[in-house]
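Morning, I've got a small favour to ask if you have a moment. I'm working through a protein record and want to make sense of it properly. The fold is given in discrete form, as structure tokens running alongside the sequence. Can you walk me through what the tokens say about the fold? Thanks so much in advance, here it is:
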Amino acid sequence: MKLPVYLYGHPVLRKISEDLTPDYPALQELIDDMYACMYASEGVGLAAPQIGRNIRLVVIDASPVGDDFPECAGRKMTLINPEIEILDGDRITRAEGCLSLPGLSENVPRTEHIRLSWMDENFTPHSEEISGFLARIVQHECDHLEGKLYIDHISPIRKQLIRAKLNNIVSGRTRVDYPVKYAPRHK
């Protein structure tokens, strides 16, 4: 099944997601569909709100950026009910993009060292310290579960400078090469 990516302006992207339980219907099929959607969209991560589900589920395959960021090589993760603890470390500013904000990229400051606790698709618990670009990917995707987008981390001046591009996404005037769902139009 081809899942559409919900774009900026859709209310589902601003809701806080609910914990996922083992009795969630067709969970493995949903996970497989999310990976397929992420790969078809050429992303390295996808959170359930981006496909219209307000549940605490994230899929990540950071392998495509492994040549530039060794900590990402071979890292494929399904995160259920993830929790992030920010550890000591500098905040590094790097460019980020998002499948829900096509055509945009902004510099976002994030902590480079976190502890991630999560359950995998079998609801087996895990905990791991993660650093570098992989920590950035995890934080970006987990922000979606809290109803946040990466543009919430940029300055008000910078957000004003991209306002026209954001309006183009909301109004459906942005060209996208993968299936999408636009925000409902208000009359």
